[in-house]
């Protein structure tokens, strides 16, 4: 069982930055592709960014390209999402997810484990 715990969310003004972290305990993340998703009120959960187990390949949703950076430190069993130039429309609960293997998928159904989420609120 992989338990994921997100942190780093909060309230930030438009144009600001936040760095989210997703850590695990009890199981190494080095064999897992990791993804970040988000869910805004009244909307479906959507893919934001993904990174393969080695960290050598990443993929971003169009909304995240050029502003967000996903990275990982397998020695620390932690995945990060650096978010810059935040916009009010980035307001959502952000979730990290893990799937065994090296494919980055944008659909939720492909991920086996989920964290509880961290709230990001961007004020205008």
Features:
single chain; 124 residues; mainly beta; 7-stranded mixed sheet; 4-stranded antiparallel sheet; globular
What is this structure, in a nutshell?
This protein has 124 residues and is an all-beta fold.
How does this structure look, described?
With 124 residues, this protein is mainly beta. It has strands spanning 3-7, 10-13, 18-25, 32-39, 46-51, 58-60, 68-73, 78-83, 92-100, 113-114, 118-123. It contains no helices and eleven strands. A hairpin with a 6-residue loop joins strand 5 (46-51) and strand 6. It is globular. The termini are far apart.
Number of helices: 0
Secondary structural class: mainly beta
Extract low-pLDDT stretches: none
Terminal Cα separation, in Å? 40 Å
Mean pLDDT, rounded to whole units? 95
The count of DSSP E runs of length 2 or more, i.e. the number of strands, is 11
SSE inventory with pairings:
Layout: E1 3-7, E2 10-13, E3 18-25, E4 32-39, E5 46-51, E6 58-60, E7 68-73, E8 78-83, E9 92-100, E10 113-114, E11 118-123
Parallel strand pairs: 2-11
Antiparallel strand pairs: 1-3, 3-8, 4-5, 4-9, 5-6, 7-8, 9-10, 9-11
